[in-house]
Design a protein that fits this description.
CATH superfamily of the largest domain: P-loop containing nucleotide triphosphate hydrolases
Number of domains: 2
Oligomer: single chain
CATH topology of the largest domain: Rossmann fold
Radius of gyration: 19 Å
CATH architecture of the largest domain: 3-Layer(aba) Sandwich
CATH class of the largest domain: Alpha Beta
Distance between the termini: 46 Å
Helix content: 25-40%
Structural class: alpha/beta
Strand order of the largest sheet: 6-7-8-3-9-10
Strand content: 15-25%
Largest sheet: 6 strands, mixed
Shape: globular
Length: 261
Amino acid sequence: MNDGNSGALEIRRVSKAYDVPGRARLQVLSEAGFTVEPGAFVSIVGPSGCGKSTLLRIILGLDNAYSGEVLLHGEPILGASLKRGIVFQDHRLLPWLTLEQNVALALENAAIPPREKTRAIAEHIALVGLAGFEQAYPHQLSGGMAQRAAIARGLVNQPEILLLDEPLGALDALTRIRLQEELQRIWRVEGTSMILVTHDVEEALFLSSKVIVMNTNPGRVVKEIPVSLPHPRDRSSRLFSELRREIFVAMGERDALPIAA
C-alpha cells in the first residue's frame, strides 16, 4: 500500500493554446493553478470545454506544449511515468485477456520480482471487490465490475497520483452511486492522491477533500472549495446543499440550481 510520503503536486499558472486553421488561436487553459496535497482527493468540475481533460493530459506528462509549471516533489513533470496512473470513462480492458491478465498489464515494465507482481495483482483485485473473478473475461463482467477492474489496474503499481477521467460517467445512476462509495473506500485504504474530473457536482462533493471549479472562455480555475464534511457524507444535509450551490454559482450555472422550498 502507499506509504503516504508522496510530495504535493503543484500546478502553477498553466496556460495552453491550439492553432486552429481558419480562426484565431484557441486558448484552452489560462493560468490555471492549484495544489494537490499528499493523500488528498481533489475533484475538478466545470462545463464542457473548460480544459479539464487537457489539464489531466498535462499532469500525466503526455503534453509538454504549455506554459507554466507542473511540479511533483518540487521537480517538473516532463513525461509519462508509472508514478501517475489513470482510469478513463471507458474501462479499456483488452477483451482477449482475463481480468487478472488485464490488471497484470500495468506491471509489465515494473522492476519487481514475479512473486511480488502476483501478490500485488491479487491484493488489488481483492481491494476492488473482484476476488473470485480473476479468470473472467471483460464480456463476462458488468459495467461496474469492469470499471472496478480498471481502478485495480490503475492502482496496482502503487502510483503516487491516480487520475480519474469521468470513470463513472457511463454507468447507470444506481451503479454510479455504489461505485462512488467503493472509490471512497479504496482511496481511504490506499492513501493515494486522487484527481477526479467529473461533470457531476454531487459526485465531486461526496468524494473530495477539495473541489477545483473551472469555467470556460478561456478555461481557468475560478474557485477552490475545501470540503470538510464528515464521512460518510449525507447528500441531503444542509451543508452539502450549500456547497453544491456554491459550486454551481462559481460555474455561472444559477439556472441549474434546485428551486428553494
